[in-house]
Every structure is written in C-alpha cells, then in structure tokens.
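Sanity check. The docking grid for magnesium ion depends on where the pocket ends up, so I'm generating a full predicted complex first rather than guessing from homology. Inputs follow.
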Amino acid sequence: MINPMINSQNEVDVSLWEADLVRALNLVWQQLPIADFPELVDVEPLVTLEFVTPEDMRNINAETRGVDAVTDVLSFPMLHIYEGVLQEPLSPGDVHPDETGRSILELGDIVICPVRVLEQAAEYGHSSRREAVFLTVHGMLHLGGYDHEDEDERERMEAWQRHIMDQLGIHRNEREAPLPATQSQLRHNVVHTGTENGLAFATEQPQSLVSNTKDAIGGNPPEEAVVDWSDDDFKSGFIALVGRPNSGKSTLLNYLSGTKLAIVSRKAQTTRHTIRSVINTARAQMIFIDTPGMHKPDHQLGRNMMKNVWQSFEDSDLVLLLVDAKRGNITSMEESVIQKASEFKTPIILAINKVDDMEKERLLPIIQRYSDLYDFVDIVPISAKTGDGVERLIDAVTDALPIGPRYYPTEQYTDQSERTLAAEMIREQILNYTHDEIPHGTAVKVNVFDERYEDVTDVGVTDEEVLDSRRLVRILATIYCEKDTHKGILIGKQGRTIKRIGSAARRDIERMLGCKVYLELFVKVRKDWQNKESILADLGYDPLIF
Ligand SMILES: Nc1nc2c(ncn2[C@@H]2O[C@H](COP(=O)(O)OP(=O)(O)OP(=O)(O)O)[C@@H](O)[C@H]2O)c(=O)[nH]1
Ligand SMILES: [Mg+2]
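Predicted complex below; grid placement will be based on this.
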C-alpha cells in the first residue's frame, strides 16, 4: 500500500483531494506488474507528492527539462521501470528501512501545480478533484515506466489512464458534485447527457469491457437500463461496415465504441468474423457490424468469411462502405457491394477513410469518381484514427436509418465475449510479431478461462460488484499453425517470440478485463486447418446464421 509523503507549499488547500489521490496512486500501483515482484512482497512503496506554486513549477521545469514554463505535472522516477516491468535488478540501496523498521522502496516524486489544476478544471468544465486525480494518475503511470514518446506508447499510456479513471469512478463529465460511480450508471447517464452533443462516444465512455461483454447481445435487459424512448423520431438499425481489407473498418468500430472490440493491424484480412457494436446516442441506436475485408477467398476460411459479409449485409438497414483515400481506384468488390445493395434496396453511405494521411487536393477527384459511380445517400470523408469527420458520419447514418425502437439495452454494447476478445488479442500480437504467411495461417483458441474471485457472499450484490471482486483470470490458449517450420518461428529462439507475443497480449487482456491475467500459450500444428470445417467450427469461423 502506498502511503504517500505529501508536501504542500502553495496557495491552494489540497487536503480535500488527498483521499482520492491516495486511492489513485494505489490503484495504479496494484496493476503494475512490478507490484507482484517476489522481492517486493514485504516492501512498502513510497511516492512523494509535492504541491508547488506556479513559480516553483516553472523553476523545476526549467532546471530539469530546460522548459521555462509553468506546467501541470512532472514526474521523477527513481527506478528503471518500463511499462510496469523492472528493467534492471534492484540494488541493495534501493530498499531502505524507515524509522519504524519497515523496508521502503522509493518509486519517485510527482510534482503538481494546484493553481494549474484549478485553471485546467475550469477550462475543461470538470471538477478540480477530477483534474487533480487525473494528473496524479498520469504522474504515477510515469513512475511506473509509462510514457508518451511514440504513438504506440502514448496509446498504451492513455488506455491505462482511462481505465484507471474509470475504475476510480471519477469521470470527465463530473462537475463539482460527484456523479454515480458504477459503469452501468455512467453508461445510463451517457445516453441522457449525450443530448449535449448528440454523441455517446464524445462524452467519456468506460474503457473497460468487463460489464458489457458479460452479457452478450440478446440477454435480458438489466432493470436500471430500461429507458423510455417514447420519442416518435427515434431511429435504430443495423449497419454493415464493409470494404476492402485494411480500409480501416475495425479502427472505425473501435473509435465509435470508445474501446477496443476489434483487433487492428497493418496486414490485410485481420478481421475474421463479424463483430457487433451498439452505439447509443440521444437520437438513435446504431448496431454497427464490422466484417472481414472483402477479398477473393482461396480457402474455406476465406469463403466462410465472405459468406458472413454478404449475410450481414443482406440483413442490414444501411451499408457503410469504407474506402481507403490513399487507394482512390474503384474495385470490382466495391462494384459488387453497390450492385447487391441496389438489389436489396439498401441505402449506402460512402466513407472515405484515412484523410489524415493524404493531400487535401486528392480528395475531390475521389469523391467525384465515386459519385459518378452511384447515387450514395451521402459521402463523408473521415479519419477513423483521429476521429475527424466521424461526428458528421454519425449524423449521416442517423438520418439514413429508419424510425425504430431501441433493440438492446445500453448495458450491452457488443456481442463479443471476453473469451473471444482474449483470443483475438493474442492473434493481434501474432500479427504484430510475425511476418509473411505466418499471421494468416494461424488461429487462436482459448481452452481455459478460469476466473478467480474474492469471496462475495452478500445477498443482492450487483454484476458490477461481482466483477470488481475478480482478482485473476487464468487463460490457457492454443495457437494453431500450418507447418512445423511455422511453429519454430512462432516459438522463436529460446522461446523469445512466443514470450513477446504472450506478454504483449497479457497486458492488453489485463486492460480489457480490469484484473491480473495469467496467460499460458501452446503452439500446435494442424495442417491445412483453414480448409477443415470441423476445426473452423471449433474456432468460431463457421458461417453464421443471423
Ligand atoms: N492514417 C490512418 N490509418 C488508418 C486509419 N484507419 C485505419 N488505419 C490503419 O489502417 C490499417 C488497417 O486498419 P484495420 O482497422 O485493421 O482495417 P480493416 O478494414 O478492419 O482490415 P481487415 O480486418 O483486414 O479487413 C491499420 O494499420 C490502421 O492503423 C486512418 O483513419 N488513418
Ligand atoms: Mg478489421
């Protein structure tokens, strides 16, 4: 347990924040892998929290970083930790006894400028408590070796930040009075407060999937989620997200849902099965269906994937065709989408994606080419990565949907189980760490998903309370590949590759589940598995019946 040393030498009384800041420090610490380091079991970690005046902050910033400006938070780690993992053995001097004889490990200092806290809270329109906690979480993640030097690191750090804030139940839309703390209450709230800007995802959305994935779509609505949409103009419907491999469908789905439901990679044909995500706004409920990229299949897996694309599309109220702006040419696949949609009289919206990565002048000719081809309901340039244009896309989708009921309670925003997501997160790391034909020839099956809970014996505990008491999930998974040589590559020299895949996947899965994960991976060869219906069915890659 971190019992921070707090030094406050400034004009703002920080005592009101203290309890929350201590909670925040401990929540971050408990989730860092280093906290489980056997040598640290009996050691007390120490963090110093310094609250300084703007002048002092400017001086510290100038002296330590050469930046002559007031800033909100600075961190000074004492240990060499990278993303929660100690990078070198502790030296005897790192742990020292305090006056009561306890062994203390100094993690470092977090320096905060409370005047900046108040200014930023006012600027962002949320409580000063939220701002102070946010900066403390940020500072503590730095002490735990998280950084934002490059894009990937920044994404991981921000994901943790959101996750911790969510666990703390301190949300961005909190004004000075606290909002309900549970995820279900928050999501309930998001839908209502969403009228401010019309978009649920634009307000802070819980990062963790824990309570959402627990009930797959189709379960009974929890009572508190029943909202009376007695609005005659309320829209709803199913939207098939289709397009070539790599056009950014899964990136868009993740952006819309505010969390990671679908894995993403630079390699084509990343998505293998359809994934539903329910997006609630004040005006509509949209069920987006991410589909595998459209391609000419050369094995049974690919044929099943394509069957699912066409099936999801036939049952949809709207098709959202995504094209990559950098590949402005129209393909025969896109032409068949248009033809099929016309047969079914399903409207199509065209989204031209990745506009963040192209010269603006190139956009107009692409729009022209596509509008000459077909009378799309709308053509919207977007960046699924930065979110540019997505708000306008949501408006266009809402306009094009029929008047309809809310099909799903706001509690449920995906049909993906935690087990499936865990398997996908392992596969994503295989895509990251291997090349050539290996990523496409592998599949992942979770064989064991064993959850350990603290004793929750109270009568009437909620699902969220049960999930909060989950301490560990033990996952055993098998990676299937096609050849012995592939198995060797997946394992790597002295098991290095499989270790990397495992530890990166474990971190992602921990973030998703909100608790510690023990992950063990096995690699097995199953020749020609992509053509064997029974294995495909076992892996969940059979054609779906909608
Ligand atoms: N610059 C930029 N890159 C993007 C954008 N959207 C997606 N990407 C990148 O494009 C690549 C493919 O993204 P995915 O979301 O996996 O594409 P997909 O359409 O789901 O691909 P399949 O599942 O293979 O059909 C990834 O490297 C993404 O990071 C965007 O708006 N801008
Ligand atoms: Mg995809």
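Relevant for the grid: Residues 5-179 form a domain with the Collagenase (Catalytic Domain) fold (CATH 3.40.390.30).
Also worth noting: Confidence is low (pLDDT under 50) at residues 174-230.
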